[in-house]
Structures are given as C-alpha cells and as structure tokens.
Amino acid sequence: MDQRAQFTPEEEQAIRSAHGEGRAAECPRDGAVMTVREIGGGSFGLGYARRREWLLCPRCHRSVIFDRRRGTRT
C-alpha cells in the first residue's frame, strides 16, 4: 500500500477533470467518492475573492485544493 501523503500531479488532474465534468470524483488511491467543500477567501472589499474547491477522501483523508474558476491547484 502506498503511504505517500499527497496525490501525484497525475492523480490530482484526474480528480479535477472528473469534478470539472460534473462527475463524482473518486480517490485514485482507494476508489472512495470524494467529499467536496467550497472555500471562500480573499478580501471582498478589495475586489479580490478567491473561490476554491477542496476535495477530500473520506477513507484515506488525502485531499486536493484548486481554484474553482481556473481549475488549477492552489
């Protein structure tokens, strides 16, 4: 069993692609459906508000965060 704490870049891309296409993202390590949480942030008064998605695996607890608009890792 692979004990690395982070997903590889390829695994992260597969998660983001599935989520971006509206499919349930599955953890590439154990196949569990990942939980999605929105993360707000930034200073709304300054015209900057970053919207991010946080996908978490309920089994292995690995996660990936990415910018919602750009679809890239933060």
What's the SSE pattern? HEEEE
The end-to-end distance, rounded to whole angstroms, is 27 Å
- Structural class of the helix and strand makeup? alpha+beta
Largest beta sheet: what is the strand line-up? 1-2-3-4
Main sheet summary: 4 strands, antiparallel
Spatial shape: globular
DSSP strand count: 4
Low-confidence stretches: none
The total count of helices amounts to: 1
Q: What average pLDDT do the residues reach?
A: 81
What is the CA-atom radius of gyration, in angstroms?
Answer: 13 Å
Residue fraction in strands: 15-25%
Q: Roughly what percent helix?
A: 10-25%
Describe the structure.
The chain is α+β, with helices and mostly antiparallel strands and 74 residues long. The chain has a domain at 27-73. It has 1 helix and 4 strands, in the order H-E-E-E-E. The chain has a 4-stranded antiparallel sheet with strand order 1-2-3-4, covered by helices on one side. The longest helix has 12 residues, at 9-20. It is globular, with a radius of gyration of 13 Å. 15% of the residues are buried. The mean pLDDT is 81.
Key terms:
4 strands; alpha+beta
Outline of this structure?
The protein has one helix at residues 9-20, and strands at 35-39, 52-56, 63-67, 72-73.
Task: Outline the fold blueprint.
Blueprint lengths: L8 H12 L14 E5 L12 E5 L6 E5 L4 E2 L1
Antiparallel strand pairs: 1-2, 2-3, 3-4
